[in-house]
Design a protein that fits this description.
This protein is α+β, with helices and mostly antiparallel strands. The protein has one domain. Helices cover 41% and strands 22% of the residues. The protein is built from five helices and four strands, in the order αααββββαα. Strands 1-2-3-4 form a four-stranded antiparallel beta sheet. Strand 2 and strand 3 form a beta hairpin. Helix 2 runs parallel beside helix 5 and helix 3 runs antiparallel to helix 4. The longest helix has 17 residues. The radius of gyration is 16 Å and the shape is globular. 30% of the residues are buried. The model has no long low-confidence stretch (mean pLDDT 89).
Length: 152
């Protein structure tokens, strides 16, 4: 598959630290398009879409915000969520308008100790681009683990 100049430029931006420290790609050598394709195939095995995951993550973030830094019960009481906010904003590397709060949401399943964390920008990247970040990225969201955590 031939890569367009725009795709090459996007890959360079995602690998740089121009927008976030250490970039979005980690040690992953695949292109963003290859990552998106592989992650979509993983989600298909679980019968969920990136949009469905993002919607659930956004709902949980909203619940966590209401807790004002404390843990809040979610998912019928089998999950706890909280969020932490920092000053500042992040932007979409694809160039979409809008800014995303520097907020990290943490969801925990006390019964098995499973923990999932994400940022507001993660939710946007997943929903709008199907992009979960590259392997080794500090904020990589694993599609299989996320599908199991949220819907398993």
């Amino acid at each position: 598959m031939k890569t367009s100049p725009q795709d090459r430029k996007l890959d360079e931006l995602l690998r740089s630290s121009a927008l976030v420290a250490d970039g979005f790609m980690g040690h992953d050598r695949r292109s963003a398009a290859e990552i998106v394709q592989a992650d979509a195939a993983t989600l298909a095995k679980y019968g969920v879409t990136a949009a469905l995951l993002a919607r659930r993550m956004r709902e949980l973030t909203a619940l966590a915000q209401a807790g004002l830094g404390t843990q809040v019960e979610a998912g019928g009481g089998d999950m706890l969520v909280s969020c932490e906010e920092c000053k500042g904003w992040l932007v979409c590397p694809w160039g979409h308008a809008g800014h995303y709060a520097k907020r990290v949401t943490t969801a925990t399943r006390p019964a098995n100790g499973a923990v999932l964390t994400w940022t507001d920008l993660n939710v946007h990247l997943i929903e709008a681009h199907g992009f979960f970040e590259g392997q080794g990225s500090a904020f990589r969201i694993e599609p299989a683990a996320t599908a199991e955590f949220l819907f398993g």
